[in-house]
Q: What sequence folds into this?
C-alpha cells in the first residue's frame, strides 16, 4: 500500500502542478498589467485641509423661528427689532413677551407661530413698500378682537390685513374694517 500511496501522490502532484503554475502565472501577469495602468501616484498633501465651518446666522438674523431654535419668540423679535442678539432678560425682550402673551390670549396660536407670521407679513408688506415692523403688526392685529378671543387664527387675520393693505387701505382703516367683521 505504501507504494500505492507514493504513486497516487506523484499523480496528484503532477495533476496539481499545471493549474498552480497557470494560477501563479496569471496572478503575476495581472499584477504587471495593473501596475502599468492608472494614474500617476498622487503626492500627499503637506498639510491636512482646514475644515471650513460655517457659523449659523445670529439669532436675530433668522428668517423663521423653528421649534428647535434655541431662542424664545420674544427674544427673537426684540433682537430683530434692534439688529443684534439681546439677552433673555433685556427690557425689550420683556416688553415683547407681554405683547406676545396678549396676542396668544386673543388668537388660537402659539407665540412662536404669531412671531413667525408677523415677520412673514412684515416682509410681504416691505416688498410693496409698506414699512411695518413685526412687533407693530402684532400690536395692531391684537387690537382687532379687543379683549375677546378671536375665532380665527392669527395667520388668517394677517392674510386679511395684507389683502386690505394691498387694496390701498391704510393701517387704521384696515383695523376698522377687520373689527367690523367680528360678530
A:
Amino acid at each position: 500500500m505504501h507504494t500505492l500511496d507514493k504513486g497516487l501522490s506523484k499523480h496528484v502532484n503532477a495533476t496539481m502542478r499545471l493549474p498552480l503554475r497557470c494560477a501563479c502565472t496569471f496572478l503575476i501577469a495581472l499584477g504587471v498589467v495593473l501596475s502599468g495602468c492608472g494614474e500617476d501616484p498622487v503626492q500627499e498633501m503637506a498639510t491636512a485641509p482646514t475644515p471650513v465651518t460655517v457659523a449659523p446666522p445670529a439669532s436675530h438674523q433668522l428668517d423663521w423661528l423653528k421649534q428647535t431654535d434655541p431662542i424664545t419668540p420674544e427674544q427673537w423679535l426684540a433682537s430683530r427689532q434692534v439688529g443684534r442678539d439681546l439677552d433673555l432678560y433685556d427690557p425689550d425682550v420683556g416688553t415683547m413677551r407681554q405683547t406676545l402673551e396678549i396676542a396668544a390670549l386673543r388668537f388660537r396660536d402659539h407665540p412662536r407661530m404669531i412671531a413667525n407670521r408677523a415677520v412673514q407679513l412684515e416682509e410681504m408688506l416691505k416688498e410693496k413698500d409698506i414699512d411695518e415692523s413685526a412687533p407693530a403688526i402684532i400690536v395692531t392685529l391684537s387690537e382687532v378682537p379687543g379683549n375677546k378671543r378671536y375665532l380665527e387664527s392669527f395667520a388668517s387675520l394677517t392674510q386679511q390685513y395684507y389683502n386690505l393693505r394691498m387694496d390701498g387701505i391704510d393701517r387704521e382703516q384696515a383695523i376698522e374694517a377687520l373689527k367690523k367683521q367680528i360678530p
Remarks:
- The mean pLDDT is 82.
- The helical segments are 2-36, 73-82, 91-106, 111-127, 134-142, 154-166, 171-180.
- Residues 62-180 form one domain.
